[in-house]
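Appendix B, Record 12. Input sequence as logged:
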Amino acid sequence: MRITVGSRTLTRDDVVAVARHDAEVVIDADALAAMTATRALIAGLAHDTVPHYGVSTGFGALATTHIPLEKRAELQRSLVRSHAASSGAEVEREVVRATMLLRLATLATSRTGARPVVAETYAAMLNAGITPIVGEYGSLGCSGDLAPLAHCALAAMGEGSVRNAAGDLVAAGSALAAVGIRPLELEEKEGLALINGTDGMLGMLCLALADLDLLVATADLAAALSVEGQLGTDAVFASDLQELRPHPGQATSAANLRAVLAGSAIVASHRTDDCTRVQDAYSLRCAPQVHGAVRDTMAHAALVASRELASAIDNPVVTLDGRVESNGNFHGAPVAFVLDFLAIAVADLASMSERRTDRFLDPARNAGLPPFLAHDPGVDSGHMIAQYTQAGIVSELKRLANPASVDSIPSSAMQEDHVSMGWSAGRKLRRAIDGLGRVVAIELLTAARGIDLRGIAPSPVTAAVVAALRAEVEGPGPDRYLAPEIERAVALTQSGALLAAARSVVPELV
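Logged structural output:
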């Protein structure tokens, strides 16, 4: 697969293709020509006696410091070296690659004034699988994701550490030499152009939305299996009832639930006069309303992501009419807000999933199933502690839902006195999404066990999902070592294998 940068705005799918699947990156020839033209403007300012921020002055609180002509190229190198100051655990390869691709995309807009060789070097590094080492801490989400982007720029200069295509930790200079990439020698403004952007937090947003596209559909699937396994009703998911509250996400989730439950002998067996249950519990009955709200939150986040993907962020920036102007477009608030909003939605989605699981385990609420779905209750504990694991994750997700973007801490001698903390919002969202996948997997594992114990034919979709799960995890029986079974269910959930099994019967599940 090949992704062209410069001739069009990147999409979220483009970011995922390069970050996760190593798609080839090429730069449009017209974009390189435009970069050459705007670079001439910056080159003219480099010898100007009038101070220009980022070209002939210091940075941040040092913006009033005049830099002599002979030190202006050194200024850019010093900027990158000093700002490559991250700390903590190594950031995931896909996040770093997304960050580099998005910075490359801004370079290719020709609004930064960088030379074509700067963009070409980033493209070459991505295509060679060279990934700079970036620590988890270091970005406040304002003036760009400074430290993460600086580590990327440092590697392009042939300094610092990287992982090569084989995943080995090597010196950047050696990695570049091994694939024939010449280290960058930065010129005026180019160091600044490489570190001023929301690329890290935007990359994490694009990856998160891709993960959630899969997990929210899988959560709909899990909810349907729980309704079926707990002898719930599908009547509440009728389209005319959903249309009384016309939220688009709710309509989609309700349609998914109807599709999964169609043809279920378990649900049909419950549609008799002998049934005394008037209403199902909220965690069953209100699944479309909660899951749908998550979908609508994702739609808003996707809109913000699309706008950010169409942006050219730098400071100063070269305007379309050739001015070089300072601005505040690097502030991460728009992205930070939706990253936090998604973390809230993820926490609530997982919370509802855990409640449905818990109902399976309680003989007072599970409509005739054994306590904890145990083979021999008392001797066996069944899924008792699997729910504990869910509960622990959900509790963690509630803490992660505390928004990072409401915090701000002043930096750079009060010049940068309000920051977005968007990078932090992205980091905690990634952890939250991992937790969500685990919670939904445990619900599916538990629902499948409950359905097996019913001994009544489930819907065709459910049968396909349970069969896919049973290929990796045994059915009900005496207690077994449970952790490996949970991990296999997590892998099937996070990879999309269980959703694919459902779609093999009903392709329209979304």
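The first strand starts at residue 2 and ends at 5.
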